[in-house]
Specification:
- This protein is of the alpha+beta class and 450 residues long.
- Helices cover 30% and strands 31% of the residues.
- α1 packs parallel to α6, α8 runs antiparallel to α9 and α9 runs antiparallel to α10.
- The radius of gyration is 23 Å and the shape is globular.
- The N terminus is likely disordered.
């Protein structure tokens, strides 16, 4: 649980975008909830004492702990530059650590081993420990298998030893999780979920996209591909900078609904699509909490869909109340911000049939992610007509929403004849890296056009 004084909690705001008007008998209410956190990042900020915000103040322990998990399986030796790039990337990440942050490095094969500090605990970042850690990286060598669940388990134990609020993992793998069962990995993820967040990266093209994205999803982190190992250092530096910008953890999106209202789904829709419906934990009789992980200076969008009881023209009701909740160690919780979702029944056809632009945009973005994944699956299975139809729809949605990055990735897999109508032809030959990049980044969205 987080343990912040009110003075250190970033300021959160909640904005609700919806068309609250329903026709007589209408029951489905959709809303986009924009959550913004300000004053939490470390970049360029200074404390009240004038010390850089990125440095722990005298008498204060570090507020964050990070463990870097480096794949050291045998495949990391092919080509030999891959292991060297992984060492350089880890070194760059260590250089990015704030003074006072607790950290460790783990080597992952079919077992997990501590590389630094190696005593079952965490080191505290300063000039001396950074130098020691980077020196220890020289001992990293490739050999053995891959059992990611063991890496996560060791990371969890190390992070649990630190009395901090922000616990974060960075995981790098280049291959398939072949030395444990999918059930073993799922059990490890279930055990670690909610205890720390984790960003996952696949290097090269021999790893499984669904494994890496599944790890990041379960751990409320990010997933991406680094097709060329030479890009690892820049990617690791950016990941660590983002981790260092987190100031508050364990924030929950609490959804309260009155009697008779049914929650159809809750999902994050920006900056990525992430299904949250099944992650609900009951807060009280009428409310449930959905995890959002750690926050710095950032903004995210969530799509809430509820079903209300039928009502007649002129009636209105509170369909849901959305709150940002920060739990405390003593079992209490702090409400950081709040927004309301309403339902109003009207016989004005123009009002009741109008689709809110934010809702329409993110409905399209969620469909975009889905049809990309379906199209790539169809292509792999030899259903080329199905793949053409799904990826054509993806091209159309990307063009409509202004998602230029996804449109560019799609153009590596299909030849676009007409983006407006979604007319495409499958490319006869597609590079593995291009297909995997599209699949890995398929859930990345763009914000609604203002």
């Amino acid at each position: 649980m987080a343990n912040f004084s009110k003075s250190t909690v970033p300021q959160f705001s909640v904005e609700v975008y919806q068309n609250e008007y329903l026709p007589e008998g209408g029951r489905e209410v959709n809303a986009i909830v924009t959550v913004t956190s300000t004053g939490g990042g470390t970049t360029g900020r200074r404390s009240l004492t004038g010390a850089p915000a990125a440095t722990a103040l005298p008498g204060q322990g570090p507020n964050a702990a990070v463990v870097i998990m480096v794949d050291c399986s045998g495949s990391m030796d092919y080509p030999p530059t891959k292991m060297r790039n992984a060492r350089d990337a880890t070194s760059a990440a260590i250089d990015t650590l704030r003074d006072g942050v607790a950290f460790a490095v783990v080597a992952g094969t079919h077992v997990a081993k501590e590389v630094y500090p190696g005593n079952g605990a965490l080191a505290v970042a300063d000039a001396a420990t950074r130098a020691e850690a980077k020196n220890a990286l020289r001992r990293l060598s490739a050999g053995g298998g891959t059992a990611i669940g063991t890496w996560l388990g060791l990371t969890d134990r190390l992070l649990a030893s630190a009395d901090v609020s922000i616990r974060h993992g960075i995981l790098l793998t280049d291959g398939r999780n072949e030395h444990e069962t999918p059930e073993d990995l799922r059990a490890a993820l279930d055990a670690c979920a909610g205890r720390f967040t984790c960003d996952a990266r696949g290097v090269g093209t021999d790893w499984v996209v669904k494994e890496v994205t599944g790890i990041a999803s379960a751990m409320l982190g990010t997933a991406d591909i680094v097709a060329d190992p030479a890009g690892l250092a820049a990617d690791f530096t950016e990941m660590m900078e983002n981790a260092m910008g987190k100031e508050v953890a364990d924030v929950a999106l609490r959804l309260w609904t009155p009697v008779g209202v049914e929650i159809k789904f809750v999902k994050q829709v920006a900056p990525t699509v992430e299904e949250l419906t099944g992650r609900r934990t009951q807060a009280n009789t009428r409310a449930g909490d959905y995890p959002t992980g750690s926050w710095g200076d950032e903004s995210r969008d969530y799509h809430v869909c509820v079903q209300v009881p039928e009502a007649g023209v002129g009636q209105e009701m509170l369909a849901a109340r959305v709150s940002l909740i920060l739990p405390a160690a003593d079992g209490t919780s702090q409400v950081l911000s709040q927004g309301l979702v309403r339902a109003v029944w009207t016989d004005d056809m123009v009002a009741s049939t109008s689709i809110n632009p934010q809702v329409a945009h993110y409905t399209g973005q969620a469909e975009l992610a889905q049809v990309i994944q379906q199209g790539l699956e169809a292509r792999k299975s030899g259903d080329f007509d199905g793949a053409t139809a799904k990826l054509g729809r993806a091209v159309q949605l990307a063009a409509d929403s202004g998602n230029a990055d996804t449109a560019k990735l799609l153009s590596k897999v299909v030849d676009v004849v007409d983006a407006a109508t979604g007319t495409v032809r499958l490319k006869a030959k597609v590079a593995d890296a291009d297909e995997m990049t599209l699949e890995t980044r398929s859930t990345k969205t763009v914000r609604v056009k203002k």
